[in-house]
Write a structure and sequence with these properties.
Layout: H1 5-25, H2 29-40, H3 46-71, H4 76-95, H5 105-122, H6 136-156, H7 161-173, H8 177-201, H9 207-257
Length: 258
């Protein structure tokens, strides 16, 4: 595709900022996907926009995963128990991306995210310390089930994926926000990879644009991880609430303006 210099700068800035936000609290898709829809124009199919969007997301998430794992220790057994079903779910969801109208998801997601924001805001101590609420077997079952469902959603639509994963890890399982964010990045890395493979099989990835934006997303993610680790769970909790509210507003505008 032939893109103007201004559009390239716009996409790079949006992707870099998306990587920064996503590494701290999730929600980078809120910034990057709309930017790509504007930058690539109406002539590009929705599936191609979604597929190309997964490439910089995958690159940025890869950077975040490496940096988180080098700085903090996470429960790897639980993480993989959640990540593998999420990978399967995302690959399957991406196969249906052209078949199910994404507009059907928006009202449901707005309601769910509103509940997430209210719950997190009212529970002042939520996610500040680690306090597992279930036996290992039950934790793995909950994580695997949630991973499969959220992974499918990420493959077919996407906005809010990180918020839903983080809420399950913090409110249901009992992780602190810092470790939950690191686990979320690993799970999200898997869903991004699965969706990317699925979209590539149907030739819906523009690699030149995706790789260019991927470099910017990676740089943003590097800075985001440093801020998150330095700020700890309290900072991530505040960022999580802020990004969730912005996502609600964004999806709400889409619902009422279309």
């Amino acid at each position: 595709m032939d893109l103007s210099f201004e559009i390239i700068i716009f996409l790079l800035f949006a992707s870099g900022f998306a990587g920064f936000v996503d590494a701290i609290s999730g929600g980078g898709g809120l910034i990057q996907l709309p930017a790509m829809m504007v930058g690539l124009g109406n002539s590009t199919s929705p599936a191609t926009v979604l597929g190309t969007n997964k490439l910089p997301s995958f690159i940025g998430t890869s950077s975040a995963v490496i940096n988180y794992l080098s700085r903090i220790r996470i429960d790897l057994r639980f993480t993989f128990a959640m990540a593998i079903p999420a990978f399967i779910g995302s690959f399957t969801g991406a196969q249906f991306a052209n078949l199910i109208p994404r507009d059907l998801f928006r009202p449901i997601i707005v309601v769910m995210l509103t509940a997430v924001a209210i719950y997190t805001f009212t529970k002042k101590e939520l996610g500040l310390v680690k306090a597992h609420r279930h036996s290992d077997g039950r934790r793995y079952a909950i994580g695997a089930s949630a991973g499969l469902v959220i992974g499918f959603y990420d493959g077919i639509f996407g906005p809010g994926t990180g918020s839903f994963i983080a809420l399950i890890l913090v409110a249901v399982i009992g992780f602190a926000f810092l470790e939950a964010t690191a686990i979320t990045k690993v799970v999200n890395w898997g869903t991004n990879l699965a969706a990317l493979i699925s979209f590539q099989l149907s030739s819906n990835v523009i690699w030149a644009i995706g790789l260019m934006m991927g470099v910017a997303n990676l740089i943003g993610a590097l800075f985001g991880v440093r801020v998150a680790v330095k700020g700890g769970s309290e900072l991530i909790r505040k960022a999580f609430i802020a990004v969730t509210v912005i996502l609600i507003v964004r999806l709400g505008i889409d619902i009422f303006t279309e």
